[in-house]
Amino acid sequence: MMASKKGLLTAALLTLFFKAYALDLTDVFHSLSNPFYSMVDPNEGLTSFGSLNIPCGGREESLGGAFTGLCDDICFFDYNPAASCLLQKGEVAVFHNSWIADSNMETLAWADRYNDLGLGAKIKCFYVPFTEYNYFGDRVAANYYSETTACVNISYNFFHGYYFKGLALGANLKASWRSVPDYTNNEDNSIIKGSGLSQSSLGVMADFGAMLSFDVFKNFASREPNLRVGVSVLNLGIAMTGFGSQGKFQIDDPLPTAAAVGASYRLLKKLAFCADFRQPLNLQDFSKSGKWSAGIGVDFTVTDYLELMAGFRLQGANPRFSLGTEFKIKRFIFDINYTLDLTSSLNPVNHFSLSARVAFGDHGRKQRQERCDDLYTKGLDEYAKGNEDAAVEYWEAALKEDKAWTPAQRWIDTVKNSHKLYERVLDIQSLD
């Protein structure tokens, strides 16, 4: 209970800090963005369903979007679909991102892991008020422009073992619907029925990803590898318009397809760095593909219930600076993010995002690991006492809990080989 109160107090203080100093930081960060003005992207804005590029908000946004090679929570959907089979625990999450120009993003997501199989589903909706005025300045129509995307995920971790953590492969299947409200006739200001539907659009697409996890120069005790490397291809598909035009469908602008590569490295048990590089791909005309973007992030674990994060992302000529915190109260995990975003406006834009996650169980994986540890240790004790048969029984029991428990299998092989060698020595002596 004391940790819970501390977590709430810390989160409240950090939120007040971000809000109090957002305007002051704007002037500093705006001066930092000046060197990037020469990197304006002439092909920016040529794709449809731009909401696919907007972060849901939360931890990945706090890390500057450098998440392709990390993806250690439910935010993996928009970065690397291979990561669901690597989650420590299943999660359900809701996200709210207060974006620019009165627009918002709402997201609901679920993901879980069953041994080496990962599954997930997500739905998110981006919406912005749509108001139409006539020549006299009178409001004649008011509604919402929105883009809604539904996604299902599947992944699997192949060749998973004790030392080699496996090759994770995954895919997302997605469908997006762009809803344009009906607009008016300029002559009599009457609503044209179906006018918005004719400009609405349906997008069908898929994401593919891969991830490797292993240990490199690791100087702390942990079962989790300290290095992850991931690659992904996002938003491969097409979009169509013309649903209100008597079946006269046509291909819409290209989707925001992109190839990404990223890595994360945990230098210390409580300190991790991540980096990401993304290259947009215009599948209708590669010469009109957008410029690359890149991000970096740092994650510092203060206590078991509190993490601090910072990130930077460069996209075109406009950088994005992020600060965030994550705090945990039992099964509940909350993220608060502040971002100074120059990627969508010439003027500095401050916005906040919030997320709440509920972590479920791990289907007994941790308990199985603990039982394997206990059985393996007991086997070593028996072996040290000279009780090889008893030691092998413990190690075989550990393998029944987890067939990938390689150290136990190696000790069993060692005992069997020693027995064979002993028998061969006896055979040689008997021949003499």
Which helices and strands, and how do they pair?
Elements: H1 2-33, H2 59-62, E1 91-98, E2 104-114, E3 117-133, E4 139-158, E5 167-179, H3 195-199, E6 201-214, E7 227-241, E8 250-251, E9 258-268, E10 271-280, E11 293-303, E12 306-315, E13 318-329, E14 332-341, E15 349-359, H4 365-384, H5 388-401, H6 406-431
Antiparallel strand pairs: 1-2, 1-15, 2-3, 3-4, 4-5, 5-6, 6-7, 7-8, 7-9, 9-10, 10-11, 11-12, 12-13, 13-14, 14-15
Helix pairs in contact: 4-5, 5-6
Strand content: 35-45%
Radius of gyration: 27 Å
Shape assignment: elongated
- Total number of β-strand segments? 15
Structural class: alpha+beta
Describe the model.
- The chain has 432 residues and is an alpha+beta fold.
- Helices cover 23% and strands 41% of the residues.
- The chain contains six helices and 15 strands.
- β12 and β13 form a beta hairpin.
- The longest helix has 32 residues, at 2-33.
- The radius of gyration is 27 Å and the shape is elongated.
- The mean pLDDT is 84.
